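Regression check, arginine case 458:
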Amino acid sequence: MTLWGGAFSQPTDDAVRRLNDSLRFDWRLYDVDISGSIAWAHALAGAGVITEDEYAALADGLERVRAEFAGGTFEAASGDEDIHTAVERRLGALVGDVAGKLHTGRSRNDQVATDVLLWLIRAQKDVRAAILPLATALRGQAQRGRDAVMPGYTHFQPAQPITAAHWWLSHFWPLTRDIERLAEQADRWRDKCPLGSGALAGTPYAINRQRLAERLGFRRATANSLDGVADRDHVAEFLFALTLLGVHLSRLAEDLIVYANPALGFVRLDERYSTGSSLMPQKRNPDPLELARGKAGRAIGNLTGFLATLKGLPTAYNKDLQEDKEPLFDAYDTIMALLPPLVGLIETIRINPDRMEAALDESMLATDLADYLVERGVPFRQAHVMAGRVVRAAEERGVPLSGVPLDALREISEHFTEDVSAVFDFRAAAARRKAPGGTGDYDGQMRRAEAWLATQKA
Ligand code: ARG
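Current build output:
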């Protein structure tokens, strides 16, 4: 059975059929496709197009098809072009001629547009649920890293001391934005149920589209049937949200790959989350982190490839739009395969506070030296120059900043006195930056993180 062919005198070429068919990937829409069809049958009954008995027979048959898919007993037939064809063909086998009434006033164009939206509204929930434990694990590491002081880098050069907690939480906040972005997008998607758009021009039957939309969990129906069948903004938005999430994960991964290098040794991966080399017995490779870094590239490819598919498409449905599903499912599967191992990896990774501290260098306190002079009335610009001279003096003597004798400091500025020695304390330097959002404001930041996590659990 095909859903068309009355006007054709020849069968489709086999190679064209293989190119055209989408069941091998769009079978994943079966559940939302069947929910959409049941709602459509209900709307047809409401419009007086079919009887209540016919609706009951269709709904019952569709539930049986759903059960076959869910139970893995559904058998595809050779003419099953896509999921919509497969479901309707099987429905006919189960309930007979009444199945032929289901597609009244509907097209696969508004059907597939609805299916994809329904699938996405579920999928974004799964993704959010999978991100949350990772955010929670980062929060847990931050609690453990509260007192560890490490080098903070800019340009990947030593900059200022920070706590490990502050660094961990810098990777927590992007995930909160990812979760919120997905939720906000999905909320907007609920305003545009395309079912009832027909092939392009709308449906001639007295369908109550508002009720139909609400039955499927939407707030409203689309305002324009041409846009209704052509709009794939939600696919692009979801791909973008997953891509940005992937980019965030790649940055966390890169930090950890560098920190796990024995030259720094700030962190050590649990053996369950690292792998060995077939040749070099000493190797402990951070493969899951490298894959996190690498898969971001794949997500970017899915996003840009799909945007290229959309670009310049003529009005309404074009078969190009069938190309939305493979990048969409691939991006989703990729992220969903990546998040759980990352949660375990973050939960079990151990920081080495001694190695972090050993990597601190007094030059990272040069700003604090300038701040010392500012506290004694020197304008910051001058203080910056003077502190720079101290850095140079230390380099010339081959000593750390604290090794420059007081008389040499006083030649640079008479504001330097005995108590300058208190500046050379990494922990104090971090603690001093306690304005909200700074590395010294652990309590304030943690309160915000906890409050955010509590909103997610609610
Ligand atoms: N498999 C198609 C897709 O995913 C379904 C819609 C087909 N519509 C059509 N007029 N051939 O886009």
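Comparison notes: The pocket of arginine is lined by residues 22, 26, 82, 108-109, 112, 317, 321-322 (CB under 6 Å). The first helix runs from residue 14 to 20. No diff flagged against the previous build.
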